[in-house]
């Protein structure tokens, strides 16, 4: 289009909303270009949430530079210690869990409580259960563990049945909402696979943790908060005695490995946005726990040191056996450029002399950078299995002691 002087003028931009909606109604497979037999995802909820963006938004990192005093505080913090999970007994008081954390004071209250100490202690116990062990090492696999692995395999199969749609947006494929919608419909029946009859009433409490373990269907994103919900779901099963301490090695080597496989496939196929990413100053865009478990696996290894992550031959030959190496290999696969530029924190950690120090540092960092962050923990749920102790109850207890 030209103005009266003959100069060219740019065409008016197309509305992003209308463009996204026209793309989203397509039932064309993004892989092969042919029609899909699966119906397009529902669009009625778009009036309440923003439609998927037609471009990848430029995300400002949560922190511009890692503050020196914050890093020093993490290094000086005590290493979280293992704790045995207290098993509940009748009468059961299961209840729908709800959000309680709104401020740093609430964060401190959670970590000072028995619930907070027991939860991080459970993560440490899982880490110790896989210490110096390969993923293929024999371990006790209970019927419960087998049922959970089978459930996760079903969720992986759904990704094949629900292909991504062609759309202008590079990130946030709306077919993920269809996948998540199917999860909502069948979640309760999945829980019945391993809940004994006397504990079926627990579904009201554990289903929300499970539902929040695989990302958010409105924002089409995933991050360490969702991963923590999966750990909380496993912790609830341990609280009910469904998972026992002899299952812990299999919980990491079988269950969590399958969960990691599922989440990586969801990330790649549906292009999930990283939720709350710290940019290059974060450990990873999506995960934290596999670095804890993976560093524990490599403790006292004769040949592999933290600096071994820079050896591509080691990554290729041993990433199937060691979770930490698998994480590094996956990052190098999906990110371009020098490793020291896109993952400077992991690059710095590779200079640590041994895996023991890496593992203890990862545990302290997980507590500080995930479990003590209000933007992440404001979505954490509290019910009867993971209790929230109100300030009023604590004050009453203090006055009673006086």
Automatic annotation (TrEMBL):
Residues 1-58 are annotated as: Disordered. Keywords: Cytoplasm, Isomerase, Rotamase. It is an enzyme of class 5 (isomerase). One of its GO terms (biological process) is mitotic spindle organization. InterPro entries: Phstyr_phstse_ac, PTPA_C_lid, PTPA_sf. One of its GO terms (cellular component) is cytoplasm. It is found in: Cytoplasm. Gene3D superfamilies: 1.20.120.1150. Its main location: cytoplasm. Its EC number is 5.2.1.8. Residues 16-29 have a biased composition (Low complexity). It comes from the Eukaryota. GO terms for molecular function: peptidyl-prolyl cis-trans isomerase activity; protein tyrosine phosphatase activator activity. It catalyses: [protein]-peptidylproline (omega=180) = [protein]-peptidylproline (omega=0). PANTHER family: SERINE/THREONINE-PROTEIN PHOSPHATASE 2A REGULATORY SUBUNIT B (PTHR10012), SERINE_THREONINE-PROTEIN PHOSPHATASE 2A ACTIVATOR (PTHR10012:SF0). PPIases accelerate the folding of proteins. It catalyzes the cis-trans isomerization of proline imidic peptide bonds in oligopeptides. Belongs to the PTPA-type PPIase family. This is Serine/threonine-protein phosphatase 2A activator.
């Amino acid at each position: 289009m030209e103005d009266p002087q003959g100069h060219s003028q740019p065409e008016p931009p197309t509305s992003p909303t209308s463009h996204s909606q026209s793309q989203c109604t397509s039932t064309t497979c993004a892989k092969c270009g042919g029609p899909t037999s699966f119906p397009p995802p529902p669009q009625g909820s778009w009036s309440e949430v923003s439609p998927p963006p037609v471009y990848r938004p430029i995300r400002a990192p949560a922190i511009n530079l890692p503050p020196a005093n914050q890093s020093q505080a993490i290094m000086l913090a005590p290493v979280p210690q293992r704790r045995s999970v207290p098993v509940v007994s009748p009468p059961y008081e299961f209840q729908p869990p709800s959000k309680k954390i709104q401020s740093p004071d609430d964060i401190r209250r959670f970590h000072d409580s028995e619930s907070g100490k027991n939860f991080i202690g459970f993560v440490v116990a899982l880490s110790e259960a896989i210490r110096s062990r390969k993923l293929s090492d024999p371990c006790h696999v209970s019927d419960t563990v087998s049922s959970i692995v089978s459930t996760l395999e079903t969720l992986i199969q759904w990704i094949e049945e629900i292909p991504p749609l062609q759309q202008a947006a590079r990130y946030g494929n709306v077919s993920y909402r269809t996948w998540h919608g199917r999860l909502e419909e069948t979640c309760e029946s999945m829980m019945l696979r391993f809940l004994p009859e006397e504990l079926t009433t627990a579904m009201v409490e554990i289903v929300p943790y499970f539902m929040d373990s695989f990302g958010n269907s409105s924002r089409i994103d995933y991050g360490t908060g969702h991963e923590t919900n999966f750990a909380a779901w496993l912790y609830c099963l341990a609280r009910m005695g469904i998972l026992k301490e002899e299952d812990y090695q299999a919980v990491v080597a079988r269950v969590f490995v399958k969960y990691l496989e599922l989440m990586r496939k969801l990330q790649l196929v549906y292009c999930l946005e990283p939720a709350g990413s710290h940019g290059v100053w974060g450990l990873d865009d999506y995960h934290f726990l596999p670095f804890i478990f993976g560093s524990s696996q490599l403790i006292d290894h004769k040949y592999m040191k933290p600096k071994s992550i820079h050896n591509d031959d080691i990554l290729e030959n041993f990433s199937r056996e060691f979770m930490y190496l698998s994480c590094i290999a996956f990052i190098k696969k999906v990110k371009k450029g020098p490793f020291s530029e896109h993952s400077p924190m992991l690059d710095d950690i590779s200079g640590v002399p041994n895996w023991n120090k890496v593992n203890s540092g990862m545990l302290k960092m997980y507590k500080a950078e995930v479990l003590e962050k209000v933007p992440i923990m404001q979505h954490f749920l509290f019910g009867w299995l993971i209790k929230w102790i109100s300030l009023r109850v604590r004050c009453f207890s203090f006055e009673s002691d006086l």
